[in-house]
Write a structure and sequence with these properties.
single chain; alpha+beta; eight-stranded antiparallel beta barrel; 8 strands
Length: 146
């Protein structure tokens, strides 16, 4: 009996649960062409990747963290699009929101924290998501602004 219990624990010990968190900010209305979302993924206490989604049923783009930037708006970071010669976003915290601009100056939006439990998909909550806008910004500062 004890041997069975010990053998049952081996998979748990070999595959510990992964620490994953996500912070989502968005602008526009969900499930419309005005929607744009940025999801910031944290895995094993490190920034993992950034996902950009826009419109209805769009394919997410994986953006890469491009380093810290300082501007008159404060300290932020660059998020680079997947192609080498493409645009990138400057992302700068503004209170509990994010100011998102592109390098050309043509794009400027303010993204607010997206409450995943009220995202309209009926999921009723997200256990890995930031629970409120304060925690969302704390996670952003800890993992993406250092």
């Amino acid at each position: 009996m004890i041997r069975f219990v010990l053998l049952s624990l081996i998979p748990l010990l070999l595959h510990p649960s992964q620490d994953v968190r996500v912070v989502t900010y968005s602008t526009g209305k969900i499930n419309t062409n005005t929607y744009e979302g940025l999801s910031f993924w944290i895995k094993d206490n490190r920034k993992a990747y950034i996902r950009y989604a826009h419109g209805v049923d769009s394919t997410d783009l994986d953006l890469s963290w491009g380093g810290l930037v300082t501007s008159s708006d404060g300290t932020g970071f660059k998020a680079k699009f997947p192609t080498a010669d493409s645009n990138y976003f400057y992302i700068v915290p503004q209170g509990h929101a994010l100011k998102v601009m592109d390098k050309s100056g043509q794009y400027l939006r303010f993204y607010s924290w997206e409450n995943e439990s009220q995202a309209g998909d009926g999921a009723g909550g997200c256990s890995i998501c930031a629970k409120d806008e304060k925690e969302a910004m704390e996670l952003m500062k800890k993992y993406f602004l250092q």
